[in-house]
Structure formats: C-alpha cells, structure tokens
Amino acid sequence: MSQALPVTPLDSVTAALRSALPVLPVVAVIALLGLPIAPSGEGGANIADAMSGLVVLCCVVRLVRTRRRPLSATAALVLGLPVVGISVSAAGAADPGAGITGLTRYLQIFVLVPAAVLLLVRDRRDLRLLAWSFVALALWQGAVGVRQYVTGTGASYQGEDVRAVGTFGPTDVMGMATVVAFGVVCAVALALGAGEARRRAVAVVCALALLPPLALSFSRGAWIATAVACGAQLVLAGPRRAVRTVAVLAAAGVILVGGLGFGSAMLQERVTSITQVADAPDQSVTDRYTMWAAATDMWREHPLTGVGLKGFPEYRDGHASLALSSGSDIAGAGAAFHKQALLSPHNMYLLVLSEQGLLGLLALAGGWLVLLVGALRGLVRVRRAAREEAGSGLTAESGLTGESGRTVGRTPPGTDCALVACGLLVWQLVDFVYADIGGPSTVLTAVVLGVIGWWALMDPSARPGPGAAKQSPAVREEAAAR
What we know:
Layout: H1 9-19, H2 24-32, H3 47-66, H4 73-91, H5 96-120, H6 124-151, E1 155-157, E2 160-163, H7 173-192, H8 197-216, H9 220-237, H10 239-259, H11 264-274, H12 283-301, H13 312-319, E3 328-332, E4 335-340, H14 348-392, H15 415-431, H16 442-457, H17 473-481
Antiparallel strand pairs: 1-2, 3-4
C-alpha cells in the first residue's frame, strides 16, 4: 500500500495560486496602482487601465471555455442600462472626439470592468482576497504618504509640501485618499466578520495603521465618506460592537492628536473648515459651489439628455459666476507650480446630470440603488441561513449554538463579505457628492463596483440562503470549494 507524500509549504502556495487563478488579473489591477504616476495634468490612461482591459479579455476567454451563462437578467439590466444614457449623451456631444473618449471611459468604469470582476469572482474566498488586496495597496500608499508628510516632499498645502498623495502625484490628490479609505473600509469589514481571531486582529491593526495617512491626505470628502461607511458597517454588525469599536477609535484619536500632537494644527484647521462651508468657505469650496450651480444650470437647459459627454468644460464659463477662480494651484511631489483647470463640478451626480441629463442619472444612480438593496438583502440572507443552520446543528463554520448547546461564536459566516460590499458602496455613494471620476485611481472604482455587484447580484444558489441550510455538509463544502 503506497504512502501519501507529505504536503509541503510550496505545494500549499501552488494550490492556493491555482485556486485563485481566475481572480489574479483583478488583483494585478489593484497592485499596479502602487506604481508611481508621472506628474502631469493630462490624466490619460495608465498601466492599471491597460490591465483592466486585459481583465475584460480574460473574462471573455473564461466564459467561452466554461460555456457559462454570462449574467443573470437582473445583473444584465443593472450593468447594461447605463449604456443607454451614455450612448445617447455621447451621440449628442459637441465634440465627437471627446464624446467617443467619454463613451470609452464610462463603459470601462461602469459597465465592462465591473461585469468582468463580477464574473471572475467565484466565491467568498475570492472576495476576501480582493479585500485584502485593497488593504495591502492602502498600506503601501499610506506609507508613502506618511513619508511625504514627514520629509516635506508631498503636494503643496498652505504653502508647505506636506499633503500626502502617495504615488499619484499632486494632480490626483484624491487618489491616495480614495485608496486608503477603501483599505480602511475593507479592514473594518474583515475585523467585524467571522473567522480566525488572528486574522481579525491583523485587520484591526491595519485599520488603525491607515488612519494617519487618511488624515494626512487632508481630504474632507474622504474623511466624511469613510466615517459614514464605517459607521454603517458598525451598525450592521451590531450595536455592541459599534460601541466598543467607537470607544477604541476615540481612544486612538486622543492618543494620536492629543497625546502625540499628530498633525494637530493643520488637521484641526481642516476639520474646522468642514463646518465653515456655509459661513466662511475657502476658495476651493467656493469654486465647488460655483461649479455645482453651473452644472445645475446646464441641466435646466438640457433636462433629458444633458449637454453631451465631456461637455461640462465647454459650457462651464457660460453658466458659472465670477466667483469661480482660474484653477487649482498644483505644486510639490515632483511637480512644478502650475494651474490646473477646473473641468468638472467635483460631484458625480451633478456631472452626470449636466452631461447626460435625467436619462443618464436615473440609469446610473438607479443601478447603484439596486446594488445597495441587493447587498443589504445578502446580509439578511447570511444571518437567516446561520439561524437555520444553528437550529439544525450545522455549526461548523458559523459557530452558532447547535444541537450540542455549545456556542463558539456570534458572527455568521459571510458577514465580512457583506460588510465589505455594503461599506464600499456606502463610501462611494457619499464620496460622489464631493468627487467624480477622473485620474489614475478611477479604475479602482470599477473594481469596487464589480466586487459590490458580485455580492448584490449573484445567483442565490451561490450565496447561503434559505435552501442552503437544508444541504448536507458535504454538498456545502463542495460548493465552497468551487
């Protein structure tokens, strides 16, 4: 009788890579965003955008080989409906070349890449891998940002080169803030989910480590969106955890700001400015309000289809008041001082409303609402399945009270995946009030929408539901392996 060969660490790594092979191109997109971006104001495609095209190609090849049905009817509707508004707006663009460019960009960010990510993610392990990839990228960009602040090599802020922008440069000051915020949201979700205590402890440490670079980004919109998203995650995870976590974060904040004086002067000024947007706004806030008003005026003149893709810059001066400045001051982080033109309203909803009209806004925002409802329903399904498994004694993964009467945990399996999806979507919806697409980090938004879409729109049979509790452990283990 032959004796089985021992499993070596190399065999385990090889098996893990083979298992994660379909989703590795998506991980590559995230990893490539850690490379330095040339300091320029062009805002063109980068290597991560090129890799996202390869992700779409890999998805097509995999669908052809496996002969899978591409999307469910609901997923096809949610991802395909924006194509109508985008195409109509592109056809009505004043500059045909700009219209085609805008059409390509919108299809990449809101249709093609999210659909590819949704189809390449197979199970919760793939989703967790992407979540940890977000955290890893955030730690790298955050470390670069903190170094910029300490050494005075960041982007210019109040006359000093201290603003943390990571490898994205001063032309995309929201890039590092977005990446770090995604990392915080994913780390909080992983910490609140079920699983090994060691992994959850690592997630907590990562979340706390990402708070300083997020603060040093001086991005008020990212701060607000992160606070709202993490607050929503804590509420969804349970009130007791919410109270404990808030207490820990408050203590950490007191130590960092009060005890160590971590960036206290500039941070306090920046935080205070959030409450002064109506009484005594700074020039950046004034510019934003002016562009919001201009976008609204454009929509009033073209309510159904807007002024056309990439049309906001052309119509801006005809609708903006004299309060609008000539542009933003850009300097530091390897770039010489120059003015960056204000080419968007820095509000995704108003950008879509002005360029695509009600048709485009309803298609995009309506799909995001469907994703939010689906993500929340997925969390409810997970908890319902856990209760049914607890009643039938199937508690190997969930750790809930079963037939033996022993309780080994309170968090249902899959809670971390649900909180990742809900947290990322809430963050994106809130951040879109203060920002829009643009810059090298935009491709990460497409990946995030794909992750959210997998959890919200996948077939119920692929996610634990009322019928899952009736399956035998062997059947469920086989489904998890797939």
